[in-house]
Structure formats: C-alpha cells, structure tokens
C-alpha cells in the first residue's frame, strides 16, 4: 500500500495562492534519503513528512527540493491542516510537533491556523558586497538572523522591482535573503519577498519562518506587537504575526488542492 500525499496551499484562503506544500502522513519511519527523493519529485518549496508518536505528539521533518529544512512555517501549517482535515487529529485539539527546531504547535483560531514558533531576530550587520550586488538595491537596513539576511528597502515599489542575481545570491553565507518594506495598503503593516536559491527555491511565495525575523523587526519599528503582513510574490501570501516573549505566533489559512498516493 502506498503513502498518502496531499498538496496544500498555505497562507492563503484560496486555491493556487500562497505557498504549496506536500504533506506525507507516514505510518512507519522512512529514511532521510527516501524523504529527500520524494521532496525532489514533488518539487514544491517544501514537502513535510509527519508521523504520530506514542505520546500524542507528531514527529515532523521538512525538505525543499535541494535539502532538509531546519524550520518551515508553511509546511507546518499545511501539516496541521491535513491532520485535522483527515481526522487523524480532532480539530478541537492543538497539534504538537517535535522538530529540529524544538517543539512547535498549531491550533485553530476562528478559521485561522495559529503556529507557535521561535523568534529569530536580525542583528545589524555590514552588508556583504555580494548581497547588495545580487539584489541591486539601496538598503535602509541590513541585518542577519539565525538563518537569513534581512534587507529593508525604501518602499513597496522598490521591493516589487527587485530582480535578484540568483547565482550571486547563492554565494552569500546564509539560507537566503528577506527583502522588506512598509506596505502601501493601509490595511497591511509590512510586505516582503524571500529568495533562497541555495535551497532550490528561487523565490518562495509565502514563508512562515522569515516572519519569525520580520515580526520583531517591524514590531519594534511600528510600536505594536500584532501585525498583518503580505508576501508580495506572484502567488501572494497573507500572514498575521504576534509577539509572545521570545516566540512568534504566525497565523494563516490553508486549502487542500490535490490528494494522491506515493507508490514508490
């Protein structure tokens, strides 16, 4: 019998928006090599592999088409959505995941899925020449988080106009580059885009983990802890953020688009 796989669009209320994630629900352990091959075959920005443990929690791993991910927001949101939708977990119960990034949780809140993630703030740094050359921007701020470079540009127009040199960007010593600005829309607090060619993702459509860095940055700038963010990729993503001590609560919606079976 094959392994069930579901394709979910995360951080969107509508199909074909947000960020696609494959979700494989495993009944038994599988090798890392097998998971990497499946992720490459699925070719979504992330494929999640989840397996129930004996203590009520779930073991969760994520892979891009190129490598394993240490932290993945949209893959976690998609996984929780699949567990509730399939009946493997009661929708009234929070999902608890054991991951490389520690314990992560997901809960239903008024039609949204709220994730509890670690904060990854950015400290100011001198920008490496390759970073600015790759992005071709005039930054207002450059910082470095645990995973990524964070670059603020002057406005949303400048953000949308970014056309990075992906080969040059891949040489920078980071998972990827977050580019951000204040939003033009008064209903939105900030916007961003994310490029991670070293992980096989030229531009990620809607990235939960980058908002673990963006939320504290913009909360400090705007003087508020609860914010609304849009990721202005071609598919666009809608993410709500809230600070809670050294954690960030990320909220989004999700929709299933494909259900299938892996035969290999």
What is the string of SSEs from the N terminus onward?
EEHEEEHEEEEHEEHHEEEHEEEE
- The first-level CATH class of the largest domain is given as Alpha Beta
In percent, how helical is the residue content?
Answer: 10-25%
Q: Which segments are poorly predicted (pLDDT under 50) over 5 or more consecutive residues? A: none
Number of helices: 6
Radius of gyration: 18 Å
The CATH architecture category of the largest domain equals Roll
> How many strands in all?
18
**Could you say what the CATH topology of the largest domain is called?**
Diaminopimelate Epimerase, Chain A, domain 1
β-sheet strand percentage: 35-45%
What's the arrangement of secondary structure elements?
Elements: E1 3-10, E2 19-26, H1 32-42, E3 46-52, E4 58-63, E5 68-69, H2 73-86, E6 95-99, E7 102-109, E8 112-118, E9 123-124, H3 129-135, E10 141-144, E11 148-152, H4 156-160, H5 166-169, E12 176-182, E13 190-196, E14 201-204, H6 211-222, E15 226-231, E16 237-244, E17 247-252, E18 254-262
Parallel strand pairs: 2-3, 4-6, 11-12, 13-15
Antiparallel strand pairs: 1-2, 1-18, 3-4, 4-5, 6-7, 7-8, 8-17, 9-10, 10-11, 12-13, 13-14, 15-16, 16-17
